[in-house]
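USER:
Class, as today's exercise, take the chain set out below, and explain how the chain folds.
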Amino acid sequence: MEPGRKKYFTGRRGFLRRIRTQLLRASLAGGAVYGFLNLRGSRSNVAGFRGRLGILRPPGALSEQDFLAGCLRCTRCGDCCETQCIRFFGPETGVLEGTPYILPGQRGCNMCLKCGKTCPTGAIKPLEKIEDCDMGKALVDQRLCVALNGTGVCGACHTVCLLRNKAITLDIRNAPTVHPQHCTGCGMCQEICIVQNPCAIVISTLRTVPGRTGEAPAL
């Protein structure tokens, strides 16, 4: 065979080789398309939209309408955040772009309360005590919690709770009870929960996307 020329197989062997080559090319092309579509989908599924659980804002955030009107999108709240739990909505979110949110399932708020003190407009009002905060409320799913469904003993949510024995108390087998009047919605319990996807304890808020009634867009 001459140098530089591709080897070309004939007969049954060549036919099978060409079929395998074409299948490989189709598979690679399909994988590339699938990855591209997933990338596009991941950008459109905005992380801060938590479906019926609402949007979780930093501690001290004003009501949603007032917050959006007052927030400068300056990112100072995120810069001073001790746990780096504060993220910011991207340009695909319209009116929410540049505003802060928290995903408690990935990282909860330790209530350092620095964000309110650094906010230049008061969109996040300064708080002096953890007890003054009302970001949302923790909800426990009895079907998923191992201490409540009888499949194990845990108590992690109680251990990490910043208002332990007030916001969360434990019963037999370390079964947790959330006391909404004391719960700040910091999300530390959701971050630490040993049951994930879905989580046995989640933070729920009443904040939805402006202009929509009922639920925020689901993930």
Summary: Confidence is low (pLDDT under 50) at residues 27-45, 212-219. The longest helix spans residues 11-44.
